[in-house]
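Running log. JK asked me to keep both predictions on one page so they can be read side by side. First protein, sequence followed by its tokens:
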Amino acid sequence: MRIAQMLDTLNWGGAQKMQLFLVQSLLPLGIEVTVISLRQSPNSSVSAELEAAGAKVITFPFPRLFSPGSFWKLVQFLRREKFDLLQAYLTYSNIIGTLAGKLSGTPVIASLRNAGVDEKRYTSQRAAIETFVLRHLAKHVIANGYGVADFWQKRLGNLSIDVLVNSIDDISPLNEEERRALRIKLVGSSERILILSVGRLTYQKGFHDLLQAFHKIHERFPLAALIIAGEGSMYEELLSRIQKMQLQEHVFLLGVRDDVPKLLGAADIYVNSSYWEGTPVSVLEAMAAGLPIVATLVGETPHLLEAGAGILVSPGNPEVMANALFDLLGDSQKRHFLGLAALSRVRSSYNRMAWTQKLLTYYANVSPIAGTYLSRI
């Protein structure tokens, strides 16, 4: 079986992490995977990691949504390669991939990844085009969470949306010496309580709220430290806010990191402050690392943290977030048991084998050959 995967960009994010997870899951079964990016991503290691895992990676640069030259080259490529199916992720890929699939005779599965929109990037015209192609041209539509499916159902009417929630492997803990050394490197001391958040530095992720919450925390727990891993357009703005709050020795913007599992192993608490999400891979990673989690009640997160696997707070409310963190900062036993609950839940409900079986079952609805690979899992 030969499949193609299409993404808007190969800069690190949740969709890109799941793309690597997919490649690592399907290639051992004998399925060939080609990953198509619609933008150059020169500063990202995603391409190299996908290729190291065995995927073929190719870029068709689309400087704008309607780029006729790039589109025609993409259609010719799909006709020549004769993939059994193409799965598209994110808005540009859903539109371009579905149209190109229709013209090339390639069945397309569109993917929905967020239960919200960025008003700064949202255009009604682009949304209308995406809605049209999903309703009328895609062979199948998959959401990465039940909250995402509910959000999109209003736009897609009676169109059936299947749900395939993201998955994760266990994250190996650091030994005590490694943990101590990394904590010293990150915040100058191994004794500080370390709060971690991972995500793109964009409005969606609510980092202004997190900084405001941490400012309150610092007043009661002056040795606590916050590290934020990720890059994005709000870096300078967040750095300025940290300086104005005089938190330079307590809040650290790490930029993009390729060692997030180690950061999770070094941390004591994980926090997600987003205004909207799909199924946040970062929260799954924190669960897989056995961390206690405070997260906003958005997207799939309430389902992920069911059964006492984390603390949920309303988005856009720094005071509530600070209070939830106060409870954890002052109670090491509660942190321990919350972390164990998160790890237990991710192992039972979000493991790789179940995810791969469900993905191939969905693929079989579009290309029956996919069903023959289920016995190889």
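And the second, directly underneath as requested:
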Amino acid sequence: MAGLKVWVEVSEERLAANLHAVREAAGAETEVLAVVKANAYGHGLERYSAALARAGARWLGVTCVSEGARVREALAGAGSEAASVEVLVMCGFLPEDVGALVEHELTPVVWTQEQVGWLGGCAGMRVHVEIDTGMGRQGVRPGAELGELLDAAAGAGLVVEGVFTHFCESEVAGSEVTRVQQRRFEAAVGQVRARGLRPAWIHAGNSSFIDNPVGEGSWLVELANSVGARAMVRSGLALYGYCLAIEGDAGKVRDALRPVMTWKTRVLAVRELAMGETVGYGATFVASGAMRVALLPVGYADGLRRELSGSNVRQGGWVMVRGRDGVERRAAIVGRVSMNLTVVDVTGVEGVVAGDEVVLLGDGVTAEDHARLAGTIPYEIFCGVRER
């Protein structure tokens, strides 16, 4: 770690345990696609993808073709089994991406006839068709629109390997919105079956769908079996050690998960403050007595949210600092988080000196803690961690 002032550590042991827990919750008949898009939610795309392959993941989901290419390079050095891992490009592509799709053996998601046209010279390519059952983002609508897309795919010689949808209320137990989306998806799968197509995969749902205790997983297996396919779910957040709370019930996998990421920095300097001295922009924090503070070389440019700032009238976030006795303690953020610097109160932590490691995110201070203070969700906290 020489020279590093801000870095991320990932536990492969916890990652493998989280993958196992998700598989247990999904059931033996359901495959799990591990979502590594957005730089693996800030965890580091290459390292995380290789670690998941070593842990037994057989499908990885990326945002775009460039991420897919990076994943393929990472998998090339992750052992012989990693070479057989499938990579699904989940968020579309453009005409200039087609060559890379072929070169890196990536599986694209399609939902428009225009996309099918771009793949016109790729007869035999496997594609997954996304059905819009209510998200209103990506996806082809069931009915005439889906029929025309399937005809176009057949005309281009594409192989419809998968059919899937995404739910907008997976974190709500017994959601009527989810039930409506399920019925629409069933109709779409029926259309696919009626045209004589036999996709290998029928997939739906995210980590919350897996965690939801009301039994949607068995519905997915039954639907997949109806067309001779296998069921698959797509898990991202749970693999990283978190799940959104299920509204109206307790989740079935949440308690088995442990955070994979530890985000660290080092103490840059330590100083004494006298009563009345201020800290940071706007002088929002005023020392009420003698105190000792540590300066950290991290700020909102690195992804540490400005909403974690602490003042005399508002308690902000905290970090974990190890004292001379070897015990980690909370050190409150005082003053405003600035672009590259943050100040924390180490008055109660004996022996802190320049160079000491500090935990920004990990055991003792979670992404849920950051999210609560920032008024957002853990997904955004992770994705905000800069690659640098």
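Observation for JK regarding the second prediction: The chain has a mean pLDDT of 94.
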